[in-house]
Design brief:
- The chain starts with 8 loop residues before the first helix and ends with a strand.
- The protein contains four helices and 27 strands.
- With 405 residues, it is mainly β.
- Strand 21 and strand 22 form a beta hairpin.
């Protein structure tokens, strides 16, 4: 569920991962922010010869793909993309009957596509996100893990991208011009699942820490620097291939907003947090009443609901604010507590906007999507080995690149 952005390549080459030595994890620095960029990306060297590509990190998607110039299908790239991955004949050998193709189609929602008569030697796919669609074929190429260690990986050659449902953002909204998407979902074709199959890492574990002031880090594998205390763990519940702790009810200052619980999904590919109309409407009205005590409503092109600071009141001074605390309460009595910083976004001097949007307007009627805005300054760990998801509050400033393989 991703919208993408364009970093400056020259500076980013310094941020590519260093080769590890003795354990089994890779830690990448992240670039980007919630506003105004709207996404967090990682830089990776892919192809022969190796080239740097910026990839949105997306725990809501199972397949990694690059904007691609296909030798037969051509290229209809996202607006603003000016450099494309160009596969050679040797890269285009993932055919429709390949087991990897079958795994991809099993991971995708909806009916499974049949092998096309016109191009039976290709594994085609089509994926819809909240704000765009992509169509492509699977290819096989090399990814660098640093210091001369390269590994083969199967990913998508996305030759046809189309935008839909423009999301709120700066006016005018910058085009989504990253080079692609890093699929970190639970499917068998995911990036991390492939690294484990190649025995690059020993554990299928993913974690990210998104900085409220930008940046942060992503780790993959058996990361040995998780905090020994302060982590909240919840069992992963079966909900398609999304990372979900199960159903939860949303509360504001202890008062339940909507009677029924809904499945909650952690999705790093979503900039904002989304709730259905039946939760969104009463939540907004209650927040307007609470925030109106110290902030003045103001119009701003960034998002639908914004407020301006009154005098010297600091919108993110959570310590002295007894109200405005959101909680998600799960069936197993596990709770996520969200302070102002987890749902209000500073967009200009003295102006903050609500980073929770109406998911029903984008077809998300039956679930709550926890996006980047809510996961800022929060370490989130997706442990596919033990079937659990964990989180802990903290600063996400440790962005040094380290690896141990």
């Amino acid at each position: 569920m991703a919208a993408m952005w364009s970093p400056t390549i020259g500076l980013l080459l310094l941020l590519l991962p260093l080769a590890p030595s003795s354990s089994s994890y890779i830690k990448y620095p992240l670039l980007g922010n919630v506003y105004p960029i709207g996404r967090f990306v990682v830089m990776m060297n892919i192809g022969e010869p190796l080239q740097p590509y910026s990839l949105d990190i997306d725990t809501g998607s199972n397949i990694t793909w690059l904007e691609c110039q296909h030798p037969v299908h051509g290229c209809h790239g996202s607006p603003g993309v000016n450099r494309f991955y160009k596969p050679g004949p040797a890269n285009l050998r993932v055919d429709c009957k390949d087991p990897f193709c079958a795994s991809l189609h099993a991971d995708l929602p909806g009916r499974r596509p049949q092998c096309p008569r016109k191009h039976p030697h290709e594994c085609h796919y089509g994926i819809g996100y909240v704000d765009m669609t992509t169509e492509g074929v699977l290819v096989n190429d090399t990814i660098s893990l640093g210091e001369g260690r390269n590994e083969p990986i199967v990913f998508g050659c996305g030759y046809n991208q189309k935008l839909k449902n423009p999301l709120p953002g700066p006016n005018p909204t910058p085009p989504p011009v990253a080079h692609g998407l890093l699929g970190l979902g639970m499917g068998k074709v995911g990036f991390v699942a492939q690294l484990k199959a190649h025995k690059v890492i020993t554990k299928d574990v993913i974690g990210h820490c998104l900085g409220r002031k930008g940046g942060g880090y992503l780790f993959i594998g058996d990361y040995d620097k998780l905090p020994s205390t302060g982590m909240t763990w919840a069992p992963l519940k079966k909900y398609d291939l999304y990372y979900s702790p199960g159903q939860a009810t949303l509360h504001l200052d202890g008062q339940q907003i909507y009677a029924n619980g809904m499945n909650v999904v952690f999705d790093s590919g979503a900039t904002y947090t989304y709730v259905p109309t039946q939760i969104y409407d009463p939540l907004v009205e209650k927040l307007k009443a609470i925030l109106g005590n110290t902030l003045d409503p103001v119009r701003h092109p960034a998002l639908p609901y914004c407020w301006q600071r009154r005098g010297t009141v600091e919108p993110f001074d959570d310590v002295n604010r007894p109200s405005g605390i959101l909680t998600l309460r799960f069936d197993n009595n596990i709770v996520i507590t969200l302070l102002y910083k987890n749902y209000l976004i500073p967009v200009a001097n003295n102006i903050v906007c609500l980073g929770i949007l109406n998911g029903s307007e984008l077809g998300q009627n039956q679930r709550i999507i926890i996006g980047d805005v809510t996961m800022q300054d929060m370490l989130v760990v997706y442990d596919n080995e033990q079937g659990r998801i964990g989180w802990a509050s903290g600063q996400c400033t440790d962005s040094a690149t380290t690896s141990r393989l």
